[in-house]
Amino acid sequence: MPTNNNLILTIENSLEDFQKKGNLDLSLEYYNPNNYFDEVYFISYNPNDLKIKHNKDWLVVISPKYFNFLHKFKRKKIFFLFFSGFVYIYHIFNLIKIIKKNNIKIARTGHPYLMSFSLLLASKFSKIPFVSTIGGDNRLAQSKIGRYHIFNNKFISFFVEEFVLNRSDNVIVPNKYTANYVRSISSQKNITVLPLPLRNELFYRLNDDVCMIEPEYFLFIGRLVGDKHPDFILELYIKFVENNPKTTKKLVIVGNGEMMDELKKRVIDSSLEDKVIFTGFLNTSEIIKYLEKNPICLIPISGFVIYEAAIFGNMIITSDIEWHSEFIEDGINGWVAKYLDINSWLEKLNYIECNLEDSKNKALKLKDKMKELKPENIYAQQIELYKKAVK
Fold first, then answer.
1. pTM of the model
2. What's the DSSP call for residue 330?
């Protein structure tokens, strides 16, 4: 029998994605803070999610078989496009059925794209509130690399994003920058700024003393894909070595992705095999071992990793885009360089190299600022939002 307080959730990511990134538990707890909902029905387009092991007794994973059918035609674009319309229309009616059958009170999505669009329509037909989430200016990276989220079509991707945001009962954003972005592309008025919570085990690491030794390496953490710009970081390092041929600092690149082979070839072409280390994918505990050693973190565009670097008092250089300069104040608690401008980034690197003690003291100010992100407080705010949405 269905319980009385249930949520239906769908996002563009899959549980498999979260597991690969090492944040499966945190992501699930973010959508169901303090086990507020009796049951959460997670609708996935990835059939592999049914095999993912999790420890949430309130989580019900549903991966409709028609998505598996659609996946078989993914490489045959004409067939894929032909069947997609029929599949998604059927999917909307199936979502309505799931909502009614399981006494679901509220719908929630992450990222306002195709999966969110389907659930939005189903929730409106079912007359339940719909809450969406967006993490930043999604159009910036799409336009920069020329690849778009829905059928790689700019018009469809931007239209669906705006449509979902406009018709949400509330939009949750992690910072003021994203709130302004939502206002700029939609008419949405109900916007809640709610930072991403830290893992409890990481939050309490804020009390740890930090390592004050001279940094041995530069550190990049992220998926090796175009919109994370690992190629820019590699070119930055190559230029740094050219200007400082006697440097002993290495570049550690943590992550995996489609650009791995391209990046490794660039390293070989530059004769830097002994200076650039590719770790591949690492889980959180393995990443922490690198963060604990006082590296200089190079973060051109990022989500949660910028928090993790701040926890350990790392010296961070980031871009003057999105929310980065809202979180990091240039020259106060970190460094903000021009987006994808190598000379601007080199200037920040040279300052840190020549003013190491001062740079470390600046980084500690950012570590202190992280205490505002206590998980319990953020979860309590999210529960209040759920209650108001249902009322």
1. 0.78
2. B
